[in-house]
Amino acid sequence: MNDLFIIANCVVTTVYLLLCFVTDLKERMIYSFPALVLSVSWWVVAIAHADKSPEIYGIVIVHILLYFLLKVVRIWADGDNDLFLLFTAVFAAAHGVTEPLRYIAVELICLVMAMGSALAVAYIEARYKKIELTRKSSVAVAPGFAMVMFSILMIFVEARWL
Q1: What is the largest CA-CA distance in the chain?
Q2: Is the pLDDT of residue 64 over 80?
């Protein structure tokens, strides 16, 4: 895979994640279209790095099915579903698929870290706005995804080029 393509993906994804972080906190809104385009781009990188491993195709199919399931079940907003798909694509490209069980375990840990980060940001936001954080409160999920994806991207860049 061309290094320039991967660098461009990293830069555009980072800019998009910063935009999501800010707009989700400010307006509870995420621009979905860039997430979908970036997801496809990162899945291409993941498949290219998988060295014709059949497991990557199973992982892609499972994540796309999960994406559509989350759209039907509606546990969060549509933009958050798109960020979930982007998160899984970035993780697949950065982590690679050598051992499927290890891959699943680490991905789930990263997903829990994203949700934990989102709750931490929600707590800070509630303290700043002087509102009570309850079970029914609107929580911005994008900042959590953004922080974890940015960390994954930094590790990916460091492992690949530094």
Answers
A1: 53
A2: yes
For the chain, domain boundaries: 3-161
Evaluate whether 143 touches 25 at the Cβ level (below 8 Å): yes
Q: What is the pTM of this model?
A: 0.92
What does R_g of the chain's alpha carbons equal in angstroms? 16
Which helix (DSSP H) or strand (DSSP E) does residue 141 occupy? none
Rounded-to-integer distance, Cα 23 and Cα 35, Å: 14
C-alpha 113/C-alpha 121 separation (Å) is 12
Q: How far apart are CA 137 and CA 126, in angstroms?
A: 9
Q: What is the pLDDT of residue 38?
A: 97
Nearest to 93, CA basis, from 60, 62, 47: 47
Distance CA 61, CA 80 (A): 19
Give the residue-averaged pLDDT of 74-97: 91
Q: What angle do CA 93, 96, 97 make, to 5 degrees?
A: 135
